[in-house]
Amino acid sequence: MTSSRPRFHLAFPVDDLEAARSFYGGVLLCPEGREDPGHWIDFDFYGHQIVAHLSPEDCRAAQRNEVDGKAVPASHFGLILDWSAWERIRDRLRAAGARFIVEPYIRFEGKPGEQATMFVLDPAGNALEFKAFRDDRMVFDKGLKEEG
């Protein structure tokens, strides 16, 4: 598969590869790619390559910053989805008993830049944000006071 659109690659530490496999493969439905058993696993994160590396000593709590009165991890990654895909992931995460650090909610409701967002921890404590904009043109709008 080739793509004219660049894809990102992200490697991150986990303390349990099987727990990472269950979360990213089982809950988030990310297909697995290559792996080096006992060391790392590639996942197709909606067209982007993420790699869970076994590195328990690098798993630690992230620094947090306040956004909308909520403690948002300064270090996080995630996806901007369409609204219905965001709702499906929200529902899958809830059904799986995921550890939300910011429960799903709507920012700027009824205003320009309206967006759904949520933050969840993977089994190793890595923070992921999933968001959706009502109007995708607002993703990079400078008129919004957007954090993260």
CATH class of the largest domain: Alpha Beta
Mean pLDDT: 91
CATH superfamily of the largest domain: 2,3-Dihydroxybiphenyl 1,2-Dioxygenase, domain 1
Tally of helical segments:
2
Instruction: Write down the domain tally.
Output: 2
Structural class: alpha+beta
- Taking all Cα atoms into account, the compactness measure Rg is 16 Å
- What portion of the residues fall into strands of 2 or more residues? 35-45%
Q: Give the CA-based shape.
A: globular
User: What would CATH call the architecture of the largest domain?
Assistant: Roll
Strand arrangement across the biggest beta sheet: 1-4-3-2
Tell me the span between the first and last alpha carbons.
30 Å
The fold-level CATH name of the largest domain is 2,3-Dihydroxybiphenyl 1,2-Dioxygenase, domain 1
Sheet with the most strands, sense and barrel status: 4 strands, mixed
Low-confidence region ranges: none
Write the topology of this structure.
Elements: E1 9-14, H1 17-27, E2 32-36, E3 40-45, E4 48-54, E5 64-67, E6 70-73, E7 77-81, H2 83-95, E8 99-107, E9 115-121, E10 127-133
Descriptive account of the structure:
It comes from Parvularcula lutaonensis. This is VOC family protein. A four-stranded mixed sheet has the order 1-4-3-2, covered by helices on one side. The protein has a four-stranded mixed sheet with strand order 7-10-9-8, with helices on one face. The two termini are 30 Å apart. The mean pLDDT is 91. The protein has two domains: 9-58, 2,3-Dihydroxybiphenyl 1,2-Dioxygenase, domain 1 (Roll); 64-138, 2,3-Dihydroxybiphenyl 1,2-Dioxygenase, domain 1 (Roll). It is globular and about 50 Å long. With 148 residues, it is an alpha+beta fold. It has helices at 17-27, 83-95; strands at residues 9-14, 32-36, 40-45, 48-54, 64-67, 70-73, 77-81, 99-107, 115-121, 127-133.
